[in-house]
């Protein structure tokens, strides 16, 4: 394959090209690009073949063919420049984002991870109870090839049997130790205790079917025979047993009984717009949502305006022909930007610490800064100001240098006060240049996860609702919903991220429309 | 008088900028190495925290440092190149879907990408099975993931800058028989050094600080980046006891960023603005 591609490349390179001169660089670059592509193919194909993923293989083949064609033909010049970045963009941003958005229409989350068949298996194996009077086997985990099997020693007869997911079979030639565990067996590799412990999950999951029940591990060295208390009956599409029958409810993805209860294990189903409706109509959630959104807007606006005001003030102060020491000042002012942000956020968190934090030490106070909503909000805005103003200082400094000095001088000659000159001449010119940066800074701060997660982690939390804290942004709130201790609710979290996305996109779009710059870009 | 006021203002802001850093320095050279014993001004000076950090068995700091710098350098270089390509196409060529493409780039960025982390986790679970070299706990896998964000962040900034480079330059080169590739490498690239420097710095800083993705992606102590590793250093019970070590690590982490900054300094100010000023 690689050879073919190279030969093709060489031929294309040699073929006469009217109007254009063929340079060595041209030939070398084509060969290099194709060699790299061929190498990637050579690396990527065998595992896909081994795994039998023909769809992926087809996609890979098609994509490679398209890319090879793209770089050999002389047409589609813009695509040649756009494709490299776009490939990564699609694979690691567009696709995950779209997939996440589709989960917003499902109940994907804890209790609803797999499909229905997986839920039935989990329900049945999870409900296994020891059959009264059945023996307790001594269990030894072993490997046949790389598959896990159980070696079971009957306590009464000392007979050894081997069991896997297909059933039980007698085993001859095994050596049994004093504890009743198997020491070695022909054709099998007995797992040592730490190895078995490492495969604990697999061992718990393995169920060896017998005639009328299953044998399951109870710990790592005992196994018991039991019967499933809950059994699926395809005839009525229900689970029979304790408290049942539990009928499958395809709209909820649960087995429910007459009393309205459901089994813990469910499956993933399409719930349509339920998640979105829940955000808007559920009184507890929509109450939170409005509150969090309000604070989120305040936080983003305060961050942008605060950093911009401070950064611009310093830049203006330094922007004077007779100002001395600007070089040194500039380096000092940049320092917060150069420090690693994640680490400094954690440092700030500790400076606000009530018991041994620096702020209380310096002020001689005993204030629980991050423990009260008001001070915590002030605190995170201050931290964000510290982190963000050097960037604004940098960009304003640059933009100021691009404003001709004659303009402000002319204003001064016309009798304008310095304030008026700033307000009417300098600021509007600065804003023309910096509005796009301010908007993207707003979009960034609106979703500034780190600034909250690493300092207050959304806290302080009111005693009655541990779900939403005083400094929670939508993004940290959503993160807790999706991955938090209360059980993962991916579908619901995805719905909220769609809302977040809409809010940010609309605000930014409106702001962009209002700037002249946008019109120029599309001109 | 007015100059004096300016100095006062700037000095006040400088104090605000510096005091947390002073606190970190003080913590780093504090011989006791705990948070509780740290003041704004150090009570003593010792390099014990640095020595602990560099010889620690449980925290392979050197390895983390290497991982972070390697990932940050490679990913900022690669993403620079990818977004420069795209910016060149968006700025210099007219094609169907140009406007939509630009808008799409802007929009995709606004989706909180890490909420796609479940999907990314599922993708990379599969990748780990097929190609362990690009799976979890590898720098290469994380690099690929970061490259996914390459276009979104910098393309607009670069395109804005490229728009300010006179078109006559490439037209002249075309008349002289240059191909689009030659124009890109020989004409455009040398002219856009300032914006390259800026985006390189932004990408470098961003990658060094990236925490969320890396935290999900890198579990193995040896493969961690500084952000993930140092977060673990003061997590839970270690918060007070390891603070000195953490502060020392913070200072060491700042070294690569400051070096990149000093190295690119002369381009930074002009680059940041020219991109923004002229649209």
Automatic annotation (TrEMBL), chain A:
GO-annotated molecular function: ABC-type maltose transporter activity
Key words of the record: Cell membrane, Membrane, Sugar transport, Transmembrane, Transmembrane helix, Transport
Subcellular location: Cell membrane
Its job: Part of the ABC transporter complex MalEFGK involved in maltose/maltodextrin import. Probably responsible for the translocation of the substrate across the membrane.
PROSITE patterns tied to this protein: ABC_TM1
Transmembrane segment boundaries: 21-45, 51-72, 81-99, 288-316, 328-348, 378-404, 425-444, 490-512
Residues forming coiled coils: none
Family statement: Belongs to the binding-protein-dependent transport system permease family. MalFG subfamily.
Annotated membrane topology: Multi-pass membrane protein
InterPro entries, alphabetized: MalF_N (IPR035277), MetI-like (IPR000515), MetI-like_sf (IPR035906), TM_PBP2_N (IPR032550)
PANTHER family referenced in this protein's UniProt entry, alphabetically: MALTOSE/MALTODEXTRIN TRANSPORT SYSTEM PERMEASE PROTEIN MALF, MALTOSE_MALTODEXTRIN TRANSPORT SYSTEM PERMEASE PROTEIN MALF
Entry protein name: Maltose/maltodextrin transport system permease protein
GO cellular component terms attached to this protein's record: maltose transport complex
Keyword Transmembrane helix: yes
GO annotation (BP), single: maltodextrin transmembrane transport
Main location: membrane
Automatic annotation (TrEMBL), chain B:
PANTHER family, per database record: MALTOSE TRANSPORT SYSTEM PERMEASE-RELATED, MALTOSE_MALTODEXTRIN TRANSPORT SYSTEM PERMEASE PROTEIN MALG
Membrane topology of the entry: Multi-pass membrane protein
Name of the molecule in the record: ABC transporter permease subunit
Organism, scientific name: Nonomuraea phyllanthi
Segments crossing the lipid bilayer: 64-90, 102-127, 139-162, 183-205, 243-264
Pfam families in UniProt: BPD_transp_1
Major subcellular site: membrane
Keyword Metal-binding found: no
Gene3D superfamilies linked to this entry: MetI-like (1.10.3720.10)
Family matches, as CDD domains: TM_PBP2
Cellular compartments annotated: Cell membrane
Keywords: Cell membrane, Membrane, Sugar transport, Transmembrane, Transmembrane helix, Transport
GO MF annotation terms: ABC-type maltose transporter activity
GO-annotated biological processes: maltodextrin transmembrane transport
Superkingdom of source: Bacteria
GO cellular component, one term: plasma membrane
Record family assignment: Belongs to the binding-protein-dependent transport system permease family. MalFG subfamily.
Cell cycle in keyword set: no
